[in-house]
Design a protein that fits this description.
282 residues; alpha+beta; Nitrilase/N-carbamoyl-D-aminoacid amidohydrolase; six-stranded mixed β-sheet; 6 helices; 17 strands
């Protein structure tokens, strides 16, 4: 299966961002991609860096005009699309979501981000309701995709649940970078940790992992890109830089079974001893 992760910079002009996404999706499809994933909140800037009620106007329902447009594109290009977007469910109820669109344009379903951060420059709790659908795996024509978003990537429990539900590829659309007051040394530390934690999910679960990050500077926040795909033993098999890029890679899903035979973590799990994981502290 050929997978493409698309990273690019966004502006306050949503129509421009949507046009950019469409153009890059077309290029990825022309190169043979069967599954194409975009970055977190692909059609907007990362507005959560500040608190402002006006940004709620950027949200759309699912299904709605935005998903209709990309459903038509998926059908035209015969590709599976992962569309991370700002979802309006009802007045006052909004989600950080990902719509999964099949080759025929049908929306297979929606994942809603489960872990919502609240830190300087990442004020997501103001905008997003915590996900109410649980951790999701979608059986697409391109493979079984575990859909997770950004802050979810730091939690091994999320990756494990998705893998146990059959995910062959965990996909993490992301908006992560350094704030104006953070140094180059801190950037390197953060980037290394971001890649390491996701590679660890690949190793622990014997599956493929993809992280898709945006690029560019928004209100001083420098998004570092570096989208990548890891194999089921943590080896990075493709990685982008810090510029707009279509990262494409062939993924052999049959590698998963061999990896799990060699490193049988699922076999040796002590499922009788993990009740304490449901507690905040022990």
């Amino acid at each position: 299966m050929k997978f493409s992760a698309i990273q690019y910079s966004c502006t306050e002009d949503s129509s421009h961002n949507i046009k950019t996404a469409e153009e890059l999706i077309r290029k990825a499809a022309q190169s043979g991609a069967e599954l194409i994933a975009l970055q977190e909140l692909f059609h907007t800037t990362y507005f959560c860096r500040e608190i402002d009620q006006k940004y709620f106007d950027w949200a759309e329902p699912i299904p709605g005009p935005l998903t209709d447009r990309f459903s038509s594109l998926a059908k035209e290009l015969n590709v599976v699309l992962l569309l991370p977007m700002f979802e309006k469910k009802a007045p006052g109820v909004y989600f950080n979501s990902m719509a999964v669109i099949e080759r025929d344009g049908a929306i297979l379903g929606t994942y809603r981000k489960m872990h919502i951060p609240d830190d300087p420059g990442f004020y997501e709790k103001y905008y997003f309701t915590p996900g109410d659908k649980g951790f999701k795996v979608f059986d697409t024509s391109a493979g079984k995709i575990g859909t997770l978003i950004c802050w979810d990537q730091w939690f091994p429990e999320a990756a494990r649940v998705a893998a146990l539900a059959g995910a062959e590829l965990l996909v993490y659309p992301t908006a992560i970078g350094t704030l104006p007051e953070e140094s180059d040394v801190e950037k390197k530390e953060f980037l290394d940790a971001w890649i390491t934690i996701q590679r660890s999910h690949a190793i622990a679960n014997g599956c493929f992992v993809a992280g898709i990050n945006r690029v560019g500077i928004e209100a001083g926040t420098n998004f570092w890109g570096n989208s990548f795909v890891s194999g089921p033993f943590g080896k990075i098999i493709a990685q982008a830089g810090e510029q707009e890029e279509i990262l494409s890679v062939e993924i052999n899903l049959s590698d998963i079974e061999k990896q799990r035979q060699t490193w049988p973590f699922f076999r040796d799990r002590r499922i009788d001893a993990y009740d304490d994981l449901k507690k905040r502290f022990i």
